[in-house]
Design brief:
about 400 residues; 7 strands; elongated; Tetratricopeptide repeat protein; TPR_rpt; TPR-like_helical_dom_sf; Ycf3
Length: about 400
């Protein structure tokens, strides 16, 4: 969900906000800029916060570009003002000018090494750069200098979580929650760590609480909770979360596909078909960046099955549905059953077919190259009809009409 060119602005607004603009930074009183249009750091910071909290888009970017120019101009007059360097770093970071942002944060800390906010912002910046060790060091220092701010511990927890330092990440999130018990981001972080540690029920309870409170990345959280419940076979709960994603982001085609899967699992075929229509309309509008989607996930006769539907019949070996029968651990494919309409098959079959109607066929393919054919269809059969045949195959009730085996090895 990072399509916006000013994604960082939105992320910072949601992750780091929660206080009035005047409280977002700690500026040493002795280093305040003199009053005036160029040197008033507080005035410039207020403008930066106003831009950060405003709607994203070209006007926001233009405002940030103008502010960056003013900050550089102000630094010509006050090159030793750490807060101006800090504000320039933030502005450059939001504009994705990472090298400039890094230099500005470094200069702010050179001039004022004991300001917690400067360490905090540099720690966040370094995590974006992939420097997790540097991020940990900066965020640890921010928490040492100002231990009463939940955001310092929360972001330290996020960096430690990224470093797979789960016990320490858990402790950092708990420190944040001791300061702000209803902080949704800290609840989410703690929940994620608990789940990673195998304490699934505790973790899911915290994620549910975070979702109810609202988080900076609520759609991602809702999607992940839906995925969890889907895999656990709790389809009503899964449906609730995927619906929440679609309510906020109607063009999220992956969540739309999840709704199709969950309605299918619950036997709600009319609702499933409505979502299928909506998904196909998204595809026609160019809002789907994939030639196929996951139509269904189910278990049958001890097999896990993942079904893919192709939007279009394309190529010489066009396929509409692909049923991948997985190993019990779900890591590899045991065999594939597909409904296809191959060009050479349509050319070869000329008898007993309706003119202008494509021939379809249900085939089975194995990793060793073996192939089976279970039947031919004059025209495209429905998904429900093909699914029923696949279930019969998996139950051993439908035998192949023909098949080929791989050639024996010469070794």
């Amino acid at each position: 969900m990072s399509g916006s060119p000013l994604y960082r602005v939105a992320l910072m607004t949601l992750l780091l906000g929660g206080m009035t603009p005047a409280c977002r930074t700690v500026t040493p009183p002795a280093r305040q800029s003199p009053a005036g249009p160029r040197g008033d750091a507080r005035h410039l910071e207020a403008r930066l916060d106003e831009l950060r909290l405003g709607p994203d888009g070209p006007r926001q970017r233009q405002g940030l570009e103008m502010l960056a120019l003013e900050l550089r101009d102000a630094l010509r007059f006050e090159p030793e003002n750490p807060h101006l360097h800090y504000l320039l770093g933030r502005t450059a970071f939001y504009l994705e000018r990472d090298a400039e942002a890094g230099r500005a944060f470094d200069e702010a800390l050179r001039l004022a090494p004991d300001v917690a906010e400067y360490h905090f912002m540099r720690g966040f910046y370094l995590r974006f750069q992939g420097d997790l060790a540097g991020s940990e060091a900066e965020l640890t220092r921010a928490a040492e200098l100002d231990p009463g701010k939940a955001k310092h511990w929360r972001q330290l927890g996020a960096t430690l979580e990224a470093r797979k330092e789960l016990p320490r990440a858990l402790a950092a999130y708990e420190a944040a929650l001791a300061i702000a018990p209803e902080d949704a981001e800290s609840l989410r972080g703690r929940g994620q760590v608990l789940m990673a540690q195998g304490r699934v029920d505790e973790g899911v309870a915290l994620l549910e609480k975070a979702a109810a409170l609202g988080t900076s990345d609520d759609l991602s959280l809702r999607y992940n909770l839906g995925q969890h419940y889907q895999l656990a076979g709790k389809h009503e709960q899964a449906l609730e979360h995927f619906r929440a994603v679609i309510a906020a982001a109607p063009d999220d085609w992956r969540a739309r596909a999840k709704l199709i899967q969950e309605h299918q699992a619950l036997g709600q075929l009319a609702e499933r078909d409505a979502q299928l229509t909506a998904l196909r309309e998204l595809k026609q509008r160019g809002a789907v960046d994939s030639p196929f989607f996951v139509r269904e996930q189910f278990e049958e006769s001890g097999h896990k099955v993942m079904v893919f539907e192709h939007f279009e019949l394309e190529g010489e070996r066009a396929v509409r549905y692909r049923f991948e029968v997985l190993t019990p651990d779900g890591e590899s494919v045991q065999r594939t059953l597909s409904l296809g309409s191959y060009e050479f098959t349509n050319k070869a079959i000329t008898e007993n077919r309706t003119p202008g109607v494509r021939i379809f066929h249900l085939d089975g393919y194995f990793p060793d190259g073996a192939h089976q054919t279970f039947g031919f269809f004059d025209g495209e059969p429905s998904y429900d009809a093909i699914r029923e045949l696949v279930v019969e195959v998996l139950r051993g009730k439908r035998k192949p009409a023909s098949g080929t085996s791989p050639l024996p090895s010469r070794e």
